[in-house]
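We examine the record.
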Amino acid sequence: MAEQMKAAIQKVIQDMMDNIMEKVLITDPFIPEEHRAKKPLYAALVPDEIFKGSHFERRFVTPFGKAWEKLAVVAAEYGLGYATLNHTIRGQIKRGRILRITEVLNRLEHPLKGKKTDATELESGVKIHFSGKREISSSNRCMRRIRRR
């Protein structure tokens, strides 16, 4: 299973790089004369090498973001057995739940000084949230005070 996942990950990366290189070298290469004709002021101020790098970078960044999405799907398929891209779930989330989700995510993204957060904290926060047995944090107490006023 691990070897299959490794091969699938390498295929996603290889396909992305093949597409980028084909676009940069064959389909849409950087042609200095064309660049000078389109943007003479830029061409006079900035060396062609800088624009050649910029040309490559622009063609690399967008596909790389899409590759991350594909890599997440590959990891989920081999880890959980199912994943999909661009799947929308419509529904409603109660205000208290959305506040709790926001609180857990904020704590992970912006930990207090000296406190290290990790995935286990996220996992426990999610379990507490979906079990309905959650701890009352100081921010929740504060929200209750605000609502009472």
About this structure: Residues 2-79 form one domain.
